[in-house]
Amino acid sequence: MSQTITIVLDLAAEAHRARLSTVDSKGRFKGPALIHLHVIPSLKVFLNAFEAANPSSYWSLICCTNTKVETVGRTGEGIDLDAIMRMLDDRVKKAEVEEDAAPTTLASSEPKANPNISISKGISAGVTTAVCRINSYLNKNLPGGLANRKRKHETALSASASGADDGFTNLHKNSDEAKSQNNVIESRILVIQTGEDWMPHYNNLMNCAFAAKSAGVCVDALQLFCSSDKNEERSSMLSQLTHITGGLFMRPPTPAGQVHGALTQILLTVYLVNKSSRNVLSPVVVETVEFKGRCYETGNKIDIGFVCNLCLSVFERKLDTCLTCGSKV
Amino acid sequence: MSVPLPSWASKQVVDGSEGGNNDGGDILDVSIDRKDYSETAAFQNYDDAAAIRLRRSLHPPNLPSIRRSMIRTVFILLDLSQCMSAPSTHLAPNMFATVKLTLINWLRDFLNLNPCSSIAIIYSNNSGSTLLSDLTSSLPLLLNKLSTLKQSQCEGSCNLRAMLSTVSGIIPCLNGYSLPEIVLFYGGIHIQQGLGKVQDNIVNTSLNIFSLESEIYALRNLTTMTNPSNYFVPMSRTHLSSQLKNLLLPPTCSTLKPQMVEYGFPTLKNSPCPQLTHSDTGAPTFTNSFFSCPKCSTLTSSIPSTCKTCSLVLINVTDLSKGYRSIHPINQFKEIKPSTPCTACGELEEVMVTCEKCGSDFCWMCDEVMHDYLHNCPGCLLEK
């Protein structure tokens, strides 16, 4: 079975990550990983290993910032480092402009803090582009692409309904049936997020998750968090994305776990294995996946909420007027 | 919807003696002669420019922002009279088997796109009405119940009045935050009993009727009493599937009262030791993955469901996000002359389109993926 992998690399938080970089007393870099110094070399090793392990494989690398999504590498053409550096420069300059425009709230001796420069706003656009690219590649090798897969399982025999789990599992099973019937290519997406979640794009990212799920595309995620704060939250969006599609989610425990070959080790040991072989190995298991809602009013995470029946907005308290659609309850 | 009557519409109801030799459990791919629906032509030559443009024309126009019943309550009424098991030329091998298989596929799509919904199934045979499945949002339970229906149960006549009475008895018990919807599959060519006062009880519902054999004036007249409503006469199995797809979108309802519905968002937990959990099938099961009710900590094996202890509706927050496709759909792209490569995949195809909001150009392949699966435009998601 041939494989494809599309890597979505987030460049949005590079300026913030560079500012947080530290060295220890011996002068060694302590992280977090920088794109051009640590992430790209690790990806090169990973992609070489991927090509060696899967001779009839195809890979592509998509970089995304808050304003741009661009394919910077693919099988046969290598990685366009100039394009990546251009995107990084644009992003760093834009981050500086955003910081200059932001009001100074801290003491003059401390750096200005602008939360926008550490937020990954381009992830959903990147994953959308990745799904489109996979469809385009499949369409050349399998007329119909993702649509052909879905149509196959729509017309497949489905008389036996007993033993079905839930709707998600059934769709996934059906796409696996279609795969075995068509002998199609196993497709994966690997998302590498370097900043924080951008919650307004939550629905868009979930749309990508459902689309990938229905087409049998597995989405893995690697979160390279920025600060040394060990209490920094795990990305709930990425963990939900991987849970829905049956992928792997991982976050290196410390910034030092992203540098000096550690990132390469993570990529090779966790993400190199294809999905069908993961059953015989011991993949990384996330013990809890958070599906808590977020209040549209306060942004707090909630276990129990009140949902407007017209616009499905979630609130932590029962309001007289929905803040989203303006309906009076 | 006005559909010209086919030539076989005037035949008498078959008495069932020519009934098929299977019980509708397995549907074989039989050749259907009446492939006269345009959707088939749209998929025959997938890459042909004419077929591409035909598929694009089948997409619905830009949806206006209008109040819809997002949390849906659907009653599926099935006619299991004798005529349903008779051989059918347009819904081969027979109407019962075709409806059952189409309904199974439709239920999967429906609960996938409308997870905050509940469905009940009622069938009628031997002039009676039976509640096959109470209101539930559990797909396995519904499919399980549906699989228990056999062709041998298609006997006697259908009592439409009894089925509608059952529905009208359940409606007052609902919470009132959704518009009750009725989807009726009727196989006869006439109604044996009058509907009487039942018609008044279903005025505030959305009535969708599928007349499987031919158009019936009484049923069409019934749909004029409710709003929104639809009346379909399928001409083939493919036609029936495509008509059912129209019901995947939540119905519009300008009179629906806004309400705040309490939902629980439980966390998925994985445990090395199996735990005893409630399931929708009724019997407790041992599972390693389970959800814990945030109110009373009762363990449930799957969601969406209702907590057995405190009756809190448990739902996955990701399921709510599916509803936004209906509230904020992406606009239809406009066809342009091919000049620049696709923004998403980089290909330059014969049929190129553009998003009028962000100005990005896409090829027809990415256009189909974005509108049918992703419901996202990558250009619109980026900052300007």
UniProtKB/TrEMBL annotation, chain A:
Recorded GO CC terms: transcription factor TFIIH core complex; transcription factor TFIIH holo complex
MF GO annotations: zinc ion binding
Keywords of this entry: DNA damage, DNA repair, Metal-binding, Nucleus, Transcription, Transcription regulation, Zinc, Zinc-finger
InterPro entries cross-referenced by the UniProt entry: TFIIH_Tfb4/GTF2H3, vWFA_dom_sf
Chief location category: nucleus
Keyword Transcription regulation appears in the UniProt entry: yes
Record localization: Nucleus
KW Chaperone (keyword) present: no
UniProt name for this protein: RNA polymerase II transcription factor B subunit 4
Natural source organism: Triparma strigata
Upper lineage: Eukaryota, Sar, Stramenopiles, Ochrophyta, Bolidophyceae
UniProtKB/TrEMBL annotation, chain B:
Record's keyword terms, sorted: Metal-binding, Zinc, Zinc-finger
Pfam families with a match to the protein in the record: C1_4, Ssl1
GO molecular function terms attached to this record: zinc ion binding
Coiled-coil intervals: none
InterPro entries for the chain: C1-like_sf, Ssl1-like, TFIIH_C1-like_dom, TFIIH_SSL1/p44, vWFA_dom_sf, Znf_B-box, Znf_C2H2_type, Znf_RING/FYVE/PHD
Presence of the UniProt keyword Aminoacyl-tRNA synthetase in the record: no
One term under GO cellular component: transcription factor TFIIH holo complex
GO biological process, one term: DNA-templated transcription
Sequence segments annotated as region (Disordered): 1-25
Superkingdom of this protein's organism: Eukaryota
Entry-linked SUPFAM superfamilies: Cysteine-rich domain, vWA-like
B box-type domain mapped to chain residues: 337-371
Keyword Transcription: no
Protein name: B box-type domain-containing protein
Species this protein is from: Triparma strigata
